[in-house]
Amino acid sequence: MAAPPPPDPQFVLRGTQSAVHALHFCGGAQGQGHPLLLSGSLSGLVHIWSLQTRRAVATLDGHEGQCVTWLQTLPQGHQLLSQGRDLKLCLWDLAEGRNAVVDSVRLESIGFCRGSVLARGHQHWTLAVPGRGSDEILEMPSKTSVCTLKPEADAKPGMPMCLELWQADSSPRPLLLAGYEDGSVALWDVSERKVCSRIACHTEPVMALDFDSQKARGVSGSAEKALAVWSLDEQQALQALRTQELTNPGIADVKIRPDRKILATAGWDHRIRVFHWWTMKPLAVLAFHSATVHCVAFATDGLMAAGSRDQRISVWSLYPRT
Fold first, then answer.
1. What is the rounded distance in angstroms from the CA atom of residue 175 to the CA atom of residue 188?
2. Does the pTM exceed 0.90?
3. DSSP, residue by residue, 116-153
4. Whether the Cβ atoms of residue 28 and residue 34 lie closer than 8 Å to each other
5. CA 61, 294, 249 angle in degrees (round to 5)?
6. Average pLDDT over the chain, rounded to whole?
7. Which domains does the chain have, with CATH numbers?
8. Is 30 helix (H, G, I), strand (E, B) or coil?
9. Burial of 157 (0-12, 13-18, 19+ CB in 10 A)
10. Which residues have C-beta within 8 Å of that of residue 172, sequence separation ≥ 6?
């Protein structure tokens, strides 16, 4: 029996007028009740899309024409963080139809590294952002610097390329996973300001990583032709588990679906690849886009979106959650 052909997208969003570099699903902000999709573009704009009408309901312009690389909503739902290549991280208030920048953080690093947020109750959150060869941890919204995480003197991992703040259920201490220019992934204890563990995952810079805190397993992608899967043991030591070979080099983004059943990668080869998260069995290769796919995102209901240099956002319903 031949395998069935890969599906087409459910629908396609057009109108960003420049390459799409960031995507994020959020719940019904702006009093709409339905999930919204946020996209960040090369031209510095953030579009807020209604998935019902499949049109942009608002456009945010806060990055002076510089590429938007990361989007994240805060637990309250009506506050949005956007990070741009203008060395600025903006905090937006989207409540009741507003779209004003209410605060901003100046960044040190001009690289491609996206920030990461850890919610600490409804009003407070911890923010990790890239610095010059280090990671900055800030307590928000006060912008108080908690610490700067600088690699050990003998370690020369290069610039941080991707960050993931998280917290184990059994501990109140925040932990940070960071992927570096030399292809290594490190686990930091933020409170102790020290590296608990570091492993060499790739021979090229780590472009993206995601972590499943329930299974204590993570996955990372780089400029090479492989995904690395690794785990975290009880002693907070990172262990390499396996390498998943790919057909073509270059992974721009990797995301595990919230139900931890599948994961998707955004490829330089214009492809979205979907894998079973536990076995890493390849499930689908989606060849819809005509240029580099820069980002993928999952909604809590399992819907997936991908953004590309071809200025299109494809929205997919794959392996529906049971």
1. 6
2. yes
3. EEEEETTTEEEEEEE-SSSEEEEEETTTEEEEEEPPPT
4. yes
5. 160
6. 90
7. 17-107 (2.40.128.630), 110-245 (2.130.10.10), 252-322 (2.40.10)
8. helix
9. buried
10. none
